[in-house]
Amino acid sequence: MATSSFSRGCFVFKPSAKKKKKTSVDLEGYFTDGCEGAESSKTRFKLCLDLWNKIKTETEDLQDELNRNILDSLLEFTRKCSSTRRHGDWASQMRASEIPTAALVLGVNVPDHDMTFQSLSELLRCSVTPHVASLQAKECGALKHLMKRVLERLMDAVVDDEEEDEEEEIQHSGALLHKSVHCSLRALCDWYCSKTKKSSCSSSGKKRSSSAVDEQQQLPVVIIFKDLEAFNPKVLQDFILICSRYLDRLPLMFIFGIATSPSIVQRMLPHSVSSLLCLELFQSLSCTQHLTTVIDKLILTHSFPFKLNGKVMQVLVSIFLYHDFSVRNFIKGLQLALLEHFHSQPLSSLCCRKKEAQIQLQQLGAADLERIRQLPSFNRFLKEQEQQEQDNLRTDDAYLKEVCQKLLKGLHKYHKNYYPILRCLHTLTSSLPRYPLGKQVRELHLICLEKNVWESEDYQSAMKLLKMLAKDELISLLQKCAEVLQPVKSKKMKNALVQLEELLDKLKQLNAAAELASSVEENLTSPVKNLQKKTDLFQLQKTLLEMNESRRSKRMSPFEVLRNEAVEFVDGLVKSHLSPPESKPLYEVCYYSSSATVRRHLNATPRTSIQAALSSPYCYIQNDSLKSEDGSVSNAAPDICIAHKLHLECGRLINLFDWLEAYSTVVSAAEGNGPDSDGFGKVDEVKHARFIRAVSEMEFLGFIKATKKKTDHVARLTWGGC
């Protein structure tokens, strides 16, 4: 039946359940779209997908490893509470009205909590009890909704939360597809009793022991509140009060997911309600420690070929520290950079392990070899060679492949030596006062990515402080450096380890140096004590000059000689292996450097995007008729673009009639009507409706609002650009 309006009905189309997300297919389409070589794009897609899956697998394993202690503690808590109730001394250890509750403090990184609670639920179902229900605040706005979610997830049945008379009508109206359950804890108690009776009957039929039957009968019912702060306090209070009345029939346990502080429990619940809970606090690992571990495992390692340059790394860390503290979002940013690198860099097929890179290098075509010659790092390398060598590299493709193979091998060796020396330098400087080179290893890594670290003032001051370390402290730090170098199989690192162990042996053999150090210390401290007594500025300067001259003329002790030798040895390793990666030829193959792209995707600015779309619709619609010059908008643009352009020409208050007249003139020109035609600029019903819709959309987007000063005017809300 035809209708004259599209507002007569509302039709809902549910998405098909058969549709599944196919990340690999989407990624493959992203790679093949607009790429020159099909084979090259397939190779890069395969390498990108392998690294993508490696990031995903390693982060999941790392998440389980970091949460292992806290999850084991929670499992032990649930087992202890259930065993206490089973063995009959429940009343002696806690009152019958107390509900065992674990307050799990996870921190403000809320996006990471889902993985933790998912792992916790799976562990509880596997090793403690199958009766586990996880709740979120957005699902439990009222008490009946909370009760309904608990019963649905525990009983796996349809729960009716309507009135009793409506429920009777539904039950007697015909055969139902699912058996409905009344929304109350009494129904949950009946279900739990039936479950325990069935388990006891089956266990008695198998002639199990009485302790095993009792253990099966008293499985706890665990309810997890994922985001406690977001729950309605009144709803939570009523639910706890109701649950406390059924503890004799239902072994309930709560787990509170807390993002802020444990004191939130006292702020949300009055004493009469919080006294019904037997609280035990559990503290998870901080998100900054989690991030440090992720960076160590995925970024600061030579086994992961894809690298970030300093600016991209700084963007990801800044978003983490100043936005959401989410390690999960940090991983998404890393995956985004990985995807953009393999899509935008045709030579990224060489970003793989050493043997695979050699194979890919031999398969490069003439176009890819020409891209290598255009790389800035390769041009710098080319200028350092002799003229004959330069001509061979520019003309001979086979010779270019041989040289590139050596350069890629040198780049892999550089990464293999870079990270152990980086950790050694961090081990030495992180123990110094005020952390001259950063407290975290990622901070030192960012410094090394930007410039020669040994040329900075902080590095020079750190070396001076290292030359003042005591013997025991120096030996301890050098032993930690030896532990860092021990597993590295590089020849240079093995030689460095041998020299470091020789220095340690020499330091340990200085037994007589302790007495000499004590006497020197007395000679140095005596003038310092005299300085404390003197207040005359002239005498103070004179004494300081005498101390400086005595130190210059004083002969160095054997320990001081060895200490300086150790510091100079470390300084030599830093200058040999911690040069910035941009100084290495072909570094563009492995390093992603477009920080603006990462910032634009992760730190989106909606207002800028909306204004860009309204001012330049061609950028989004890609219609040639919308092309314009000098920032003007074509008269063939969508209605909201025309209305937005016209409103930019107005002042603080916009006359709606004048706005409509100007809009009608522009639209008439788009329809092909000349200025001399009869209908040019006239407002008909269609134009009026289109204008009203455009104005409503602009009001919804926040560009204008109604004003009480003049009923036929609207107020403009935005000024200038972003």
TrEMBL record:
CDD domains: Orc3. Residues 490-520 form a coiled coil. One of its GO terms (cellular component) is DNA replication preinitiation complex. Keywords: Coiled coil, DNA replication, DNA-binding, Nucleus, Phosphoprotein. GO terms for molecular function: DNA replication origin binding. Residues 1-350 form the Origin recognition complex subunit 3 N-terminal domain. Residues 607-719 form the Origin recognition complex subunit 3 winged helix C-terminal domain. Residues 362-594 form the Origin recognition complex subunit 3 insertion domain. Pfam families: ORC3_ins (PF19675), ORC3_N (PF07034), WHD_ORC (PF18137). It is found in: Nucleus. InterPro entries: ORC3, ORC3_ins, ORC3_N, ORC_WH_C. GO terms for biological process: DNA replication initiation. Belongs to the ORC3 family. Component of the origin recognition complex (ORC) that binds origins of replication. DNA-binding is ATP-dependent. The specific DNA sequences that define origins of replication have not been identified yet. ORC is required to assemble the pre-replication complex necessary to initiate DNA replication. Binds histone H3 and H4 trimethylation marks H3K9me3, H3K27me3 and H4K20me3. Component of ORC, a complex composed of at least 6 subunits: ORC1, ORC2, ORC3, ORC4, ORC5 and ORC6. ORC is regulated in a cell-cycle dependent manner. It is sequentially assembled at the exit from anaphase of mitosis and disassembled as cells enter S phase. This is Origin recognition complex subunit 3. It comes from Xiphophorus maculatus.
